[in-house]
Specification:
10 helices, six-stranded parallel sheet, 252 residues, two-stranded antiparallel ribbon, alpha/beta
Length: 252
């Protein structure tokens, strides 16, 4: 089969393997969520619920780069949805809180699909002996289920989501959680992502090789210093770079 240039392949998710669009400002979504809460004895108007949610998820230092699809990645959001019940005196366990969050996610998601060729890419890496990991700034209650719905779960040797780890890229602690937890040699590992600061700069500081792809979800930013780059989303070209097929251009 040929030897792979790396042993370990670490992927970002949204904007790298998955194309997603969410709109959390949709009035219809807040109206539906308020109705859902009302079913369980927590009476909110849509505006009141949106305000309470914003207060519970407020950060001391908001990140202007934060995307809706990975909003509040360093907290466990099910605690927020559970607290919204409790603020109205309604009893709610974790399961109901998770369902409320997932209902809201479904209402606000306008697009969720794999980029063309993703399953073939991941399967090729595994068949050639590579180990494949996910390191994503994301919510467990959303992303674990979206991975399953998209058929991606079986391709990963391990999945690390920021909400479960309490830190997010580019924090070196998040990279270290994966590297130490899976006993990975950084010198034999590569990070693949579409965000120059979170994915590429963070991975470089962790001692990883990097592949940067400019996708439709990439922040508007200068080109990062990555070992490998793709100007546009092209999964077959990414596969050639990651498997070391001769003749594929390196760099911008």
């Amino acid at each position: 089969m040929g030897e792979l240039p790396y042993e370990n392949y670490i992927f970002d998710l949204y904007g790298t393997l998955v194309d997603i669009r969410t709109r959390e400002d949709k009035p219809a979504a807040w109206a539906a969520l308020a109705r859902f809460y009302g079913y369980y004895g927590a009476a909110y108007t849509p505006a009141e619920l949106r305000t309470a949610f914003a207060q519970l998820t407020a950060e001391e230092t908001p990140d202007p780069r934060r995307q809706n699809y990975e909003a509040w990645p360093e907290i466990e959001l099910e605690t927020v949805f559970r607290q919204l019940f409790r603020q109205k005196g309604a009893a709610a366990g974790r399961e109901l809180a998770v369902h409320a969050g997932q209902f809201f996610r479904a209402m606000t998601t306008e697009r969720l699909r794999l980029y063309d060729g993703v399953p073939d890419l991941l399967q090729t890496l595994r068949q050639k002996g590579g180990r494949v990991y996910l390191l994503s700034n994301a919510q467990q209650i959303f992303t674990a289920y979206e991975l399953r719905a998209l058929g991606l779960t079986p391709y990963f040797d391990a999945v690390y989501l920021s909400s479960a780890c309490g830190c997010k890229k580019p924090d070196p602690r998040f990279f270290a959680r994966l590297l130490t937890g899976q006993h990975l040699d950084p010198a034999r590992s590569i990070m693949v992502g579409n965000d120059g600061r979170c994915d590429i700069d963070g991975a470089r500081r962790a001692g990883l090789a990097t592949l940067y792809v400019r996708s439709n979800l990439s922040p508007q930013e200068p080109w990062p210093r990555a070992d490998l780059t793709l100007r546009t989303m092209d999964i077959p070209a990414m596969a050639r770079l990651l498997t070391g097929v001769p003749g594929e251009a390196k760099g911008v």
